[in-house]
Write a sequence for this structure.
């Protein structure tokens, strides 16, 4: 656990970067520091590994004040990932990853073996190990950065806007990768970002900081969206707060209709305005409208019980029928979530 | 071999190894000594001064100022001046050339260290490098291409400048030019020029080879 106890950072020119920050980042969870530029989020992060020293207050690492630990020793026990990956251009990928093990005095073989293991773990092809950083794409470099931070298996990981310099598609895959890794590794992670969507996606807890380095709110993403502490937080969360809240409403237990599926080639005559055509092994093909029986219309699916309500709404909006198709892990139709059932679910979500 | 003047090649073959002082091979040896010592000494001295100039920024302006002034001094009067201290010895040539080398290499060291991207330095700090280890294992290797670039300039200019020492009797291959001055006869001049240019090309080639071996990661320009 990382504890900030009334931590203040004031510069000689009088500016206050962080103002009496007190919070706890629980062990094994991702705590995100988010806020506009000038809110002191990076400064706060860097005070943990003493790249910046706090002016007042204490930062405790599992109860021990970091100010009492020799900086290089402290830092070797804390993984660190930064925006441009910060890889050493003159070292091969495998040696970049093995940096901290080398510093800790591991044997060359043991350090390199460990590095190879981690490259695999972050989803990199092992043929990249003998290359130099400039030969890799931005996304690959960032993965190497994560592998390097994990090399000596530190319990704590500090990540300073690690994914903000890559394109959105790569960013999404890196975020998913981080969540997958974290499910295996259970590190105590502090993640700094200015992107509220990233904060909500990755954080177990999100600390919203305001300019001047004050904590505006610390809460789970779901609570943050439903109960913003003040106007600053509300404004920072942006306009689609309502829609984003649905991200945290489960679809498990929603009532599905199973009487709307018909085999492919059905003539469309029924009492229902819309019927879902499925293959013999229950995969969705398209909607049949009562008005235009010969024609298949688009459909949208969500993974029943696993995807949140936001995905179900998205699936419903993708189809002229207004219904969302619930599928199971194998892609077979579990049933249909009708517009009516969806409305009911959203009403309940809005209530509580 | 008739009675006429010797051809270029005949003259070279006859004077390469005469067993007397001043044979071409001796001059070549002197030339190498007087140019290589300043290159190496210049690098050894420029490194700490460059590092100090990076560590204490205020030191850089006065240091580079002093060395630029030294660099601007014409070499001949400097040689003359030094004779009173070091006499008519190779040292009289070696000392100014070392200072010239430093005038080029100190900025090269400073620029080289300046070429270390900030995010790379930051991540080295964050991973727990001690300052000395960071310098040796991260910053100097990344600065190497720029420093080696400066070293190539220094090598070629030192090899060429040594010949000026001929005017005080310590010019290595440059001695071949002063002889021709006394006695208008072309072969020594041509042999001198060709050997100096060849020497510069060989040393430069060796430095390029060094660069390839030491910095295999510098293949593409402008990548970090």
């Amino acid at each position: 656990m990382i504890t900030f106890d009334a931590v203040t950072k004031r510069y000689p020119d009088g500016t206050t970067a962080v103002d009496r920050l007190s919070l706890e980042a629980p062990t094994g969870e991702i705590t995100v520091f988010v806020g506009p530029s000038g809110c002191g989020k990076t400064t706060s992060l860097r005070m943990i590994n003493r790249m910046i020293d706090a002016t007042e207050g204490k930062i405790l690492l599992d109860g021990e004040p970091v100010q009492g630990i020799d900086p290089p020793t402290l830092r070797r026990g804390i993984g660190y990932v930064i925006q441009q990956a910060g890889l050493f251009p003159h070292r091969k990928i495998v040696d970049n990853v093995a940096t901290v093990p080398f510093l800790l005095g591991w044997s060359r073989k043991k350090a390199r073996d460990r590095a190879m293991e981690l490259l695999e773990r972050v989803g990199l092809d092992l043929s990249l190990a003998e290359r130099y950083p400039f030969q890799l794409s931005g996304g690959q470099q960032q993965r190497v950065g994560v592998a390097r931070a994990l090399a000596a298996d530190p319990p704590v990981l500090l990540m300073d806007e690690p994914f903000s310099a890559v394109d959105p598609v790569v960013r999404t895959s890196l975020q998913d990768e981080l969540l997958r890794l974290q499910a295996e590794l259970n590190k105590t992670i502090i993640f700094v970002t200015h992107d509220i969507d990233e904060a909500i996606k990755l954080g177990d807890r999100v600390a919203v900081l305001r300019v001047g380095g004050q904590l505006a709110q610390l809460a789970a993403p779901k609570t943050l969206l439903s109960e913003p502490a003040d106007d600053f937080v509300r404004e920072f969360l942006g306009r689609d707060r309502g829609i984003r809240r649905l991200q945290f409403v489960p679809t498990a237990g929603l009532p599905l209709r199973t009487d709307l599926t018909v085999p492919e080639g059905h003539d469309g005559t029924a009492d229902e305005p819309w019927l879902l055509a499925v293959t013999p092994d229950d995969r969705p093909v398209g909607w049949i409208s009562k008005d235009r029986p010969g024609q298949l219309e688009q459909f949208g699916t969500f993974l029943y019980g696993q995807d949140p309500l936001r995905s179900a709404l998205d699936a419903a909006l993708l189809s002229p029928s207004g219904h969302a198709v619930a599928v199971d892990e194998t892609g077979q139709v579990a049933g249909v979530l009708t517009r009516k059932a969806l409305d009911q679910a959203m009403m309940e979500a809005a209530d509580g | 071999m008739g009675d006429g003047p010797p051809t270029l090649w005949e003259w070279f073959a006859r004077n390469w190894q005469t067993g007397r002082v001043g044979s071409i091979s001796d001059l070549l040896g002197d030339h190498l000594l007087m140019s290589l010592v300043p290159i190496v000494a210049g690098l050894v001295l420029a490194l700490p001064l460059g590092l100090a100039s990076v560590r204490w920024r205020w030191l850089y302006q006065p240091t580079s100022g002093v060395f630029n002034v030294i660099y601007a001094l014409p070499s001949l009067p400097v040689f003359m001046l030094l004779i009173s201290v070091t006499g008519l010895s190779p040292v009289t040539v070696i000392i100014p050339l070392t200072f010239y080398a430093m005038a080029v290499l100190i900025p090269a060291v400073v620029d080289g260290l300046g070429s270390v991207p900030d995010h790379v330095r930051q991540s080295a700090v964050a991973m727990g490098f001690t300052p000395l280890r960071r310098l040796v294992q991260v910053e100097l290797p990344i600065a190497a291409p720029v420093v080696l670039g400066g070293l190539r300039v220094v090598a070629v200019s030192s090899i060429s400048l040594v010949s000026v020492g001929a005017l005080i009797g310590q010019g290595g291959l440059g001695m071949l030019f002063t002889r021709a001055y006394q006695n208008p006869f072309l072969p020594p001049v041509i042999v001198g020029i060709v050997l100096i240019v060849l020497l510069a090309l060989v040393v430069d080639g060796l430095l390029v080879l060094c660069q390839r071996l030491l910095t295999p990661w510098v293949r593409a320009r402008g990548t970090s």
The two ends of chain B are 62 Å apart (CA to CA). Chain B touches chain A at residues 117, 119-120, 122-130, 133, 138, 141-142, 144, 215-217, 219-220, 223-224 (CB under 8 Å). Chain B has a mean pLDDT of 87.
